[in-house]
Amino acid sequence: MLHSRSEWRLPPTGPDTCFVGISFHHFRTTRRAIVRSSLAQAFSSDGEGFATRGEGVPVEPEQGRNAHLSEQQAFELAQNVLAEYELRTGGAPLRVVLHKTSYFDPAEQAGFAAALKDTPIVSMVTLVPSLFRLLRYGAYPPKVGTVCTVNSDRSFLFTSGFMPELGTYPGPHVPQPFEVRCLGVESAVAAAQDVLNLTRMNWNTADIRGKWPVSLSFARRVGGILDEYGDDDLTETSFRYFV
What GO MF terms are annotated (predicted)? Predict the structure, then answer.
């Protein structure tokens, strides 16, 4: 069965939004040195996706698994996303939501804030798979979309779990929630709603159990392809080019 693109858009509520997933991947340069390259996978409110590659991030021994952009790199990456968004939609977004799986350090916060200073609403959202577990009465785990707030300052979102539409939980393991941390004027609960909506926007699969938002899951997939692409400039940025 074929679906039109309009069926894969977010609900038409709120301001025009650009969702941006930021990830890092490894590739070998022409000097055969391994670096981490930043990648932003962005989506407009109507589901149009595109990728923008940032500068290489040298791997430092003390860095561990969490790579971070410099202030200038964060600034340039956000500027590139805005330019590509305007090219595709004809206007600037009124809201930008940035997704990462590691915290936004002070340099990244400063760089993104400077680049997005003319955007009315900016949220920097960190999604961290958590060891937190929630039990409820009955035979099944919490429903998909459950948000649990602890002590008014920590929020956990279940993007997998019991699905009333199926009458069961279709997963093999105990559902693992994300801890949702949000920097900006919006609440973690509002950020969680965006994340949940974006888990259902993968039009390239028939899987009903999307765990990750497409902003991050597609960034990882595209990053894997770019591992083979090398350090040449991208000639095509549309997500369709990579699937």
Answer: nucleic acid binding
Per the prediction, the chain carries an average pLDDT of 80
Indicate the number of domains in the chain. Answer: 1
Residue 1 lies in a domain: no
Please check whether residue 148 lies inside any domain of the structure: yes
Is residue 163 packed enough to be buried (19+ CB in 10 Å), middle (13-18) or exposed (0-12)?
A: middle
- Full domain range(s) for residue 234: 17-242
C-alpha distances (whole Å) from 204 to each of 3, 177, 201, 210, 216 are 11, 23, 9, 11, 14
Say whether pTM exceeds 0.85. Answer: no
Q: In this structure, what CATH number is given to the domain that contains residue 173?
A: 3.30.420.10
Task: Please report whether residue 2 resides in a domain.
Answer: no
Confidence of residue 47 (pLDDT cuts 50, 70, 90): low
Output the 3-class SS for 98-127: EEECCCCCHHHHHHHHHHCCCCCEEEEEEE
